[in-house]
Amino acid sequence: MRYQISGKxxxxxxxxxAHVRSEIDEVxxxxxxRPTDALAVFSKSGFEYACECVVHLSSxxxxxxxxxxxxxxxxxxxxxSRMEKQxxxxxxxxxxxxxxxxxxxxxxxxxxxxLAGADGEDAEEPADLTPMIIAEMETRIPSLSVxxxxxxxxxxxxxxxxxxxxxxxxxxxxxxxxxxxNIGWIDPNAAS
Length: 192
Hints:
Elements: E1 2-7, H1 14-31, E2 35-45, E3 48-57, E4 62-69, H2 72-89, H3 91-100, E5 107-115, E6 133-144, H4 146-156, E7 160-165, E8 172-177, E9 183-186
Parallel strand pairs: 1-2, 6-7
Antiparallel strand pairs: 2-3, 3-4, 5-6, 7-8, 8-9
Helix pairs in contact: 1-2
């Protein structure tokens, strides 16, 4: 497994890197034997350290968590325990999907944009309604089943996930968390 352990404007020592590697290895060995790479980023805000961890699995799913604490090791341990909790919660579902999927998830490229928003309620309406593009980047759209998409969205803690439905060749689909706590699924080609 590849590791990328870094700090935002702080130095990360060899002891912390070794701790991160051993702890992530232990969790991945316990719950998922097929991780491809792990990313851990440490930062400091005031008196508190933050650790953001992301582990990509060979199935195309990713597990991510964030931890904050007054000490850097405690911040990582908190993020790691949250990742472990996510994997424990979805262990049975991950095993079932791995048995069905002999090949890794296929990813396709798409353009992604960040648009300027209104500065508040008192902001004047622009003369033309063409939004200003602040940033442009490339994003990946996975080909998943609806169940895998819901699981990926929950593992990532994201409110929405765009994916290609591999069961039906219907193009781009969306799953999202509704205000009532349920999951919504948008399949634009299902409507006649």
